[in-house]
Design a protein that fits this description.
Keywords: Metal-binding, Zinc, Zinc-finger. By secondary structure, the protein is α+β, with helices and mostly antiparallel strands. The protein is built from two helices and seven strands, in the order αβαββββββ. The longest helix is centred in the N-terminal third of the chain and has 8 residues, at 2-9.
Length: 98
């Protein structure tokens, strides 16, 4: 199951030994290689269940485009405010709280 979750996010490299031994039950830790040119996600879905995703050691995360490697201030894709709605350059309409 853990390899499947990692596979949804990217390529699973390894599963933490403590996680594999079921010694820790509140969270799991897996090492996943992700494509940093694509937006990261904070939730994933598997078997109709929502999985909360937290990342370690990523560096800068842009809260405008969702990609790794730069901050919102230096985002080339950016989100433009227009008539109280935010329009992402990808053409998706987003409200102020998303």
């Amino acid at each position: 199951m853990l390899w499947k979750i990692g596979g949804i996010l990217g390529t699973t490299d390894k599963v933490d030994p403590i996680t594999e031994s079921h010694a820790r039950v509140k969270f799991v830790r897996i090492c996943v290689e992700i494509d940093t040119t694509k937006p990261i996600t904070s939730n994933s879905f598997i078997d109709d269940k929502t999985i909360k995703v937290e990342y370690e050691n990523l560096g800068l995360i842009c809260f405008s485009c969702g990609k790794v490697g730069h901050s919102k201030e230096f985002c080339k894709e950016g989100i433009v405010e227009k008539d109280k709605e935010f329009i992402a350059d990808r053409g998706e309409k987003q409200n102020e709280w998303q």
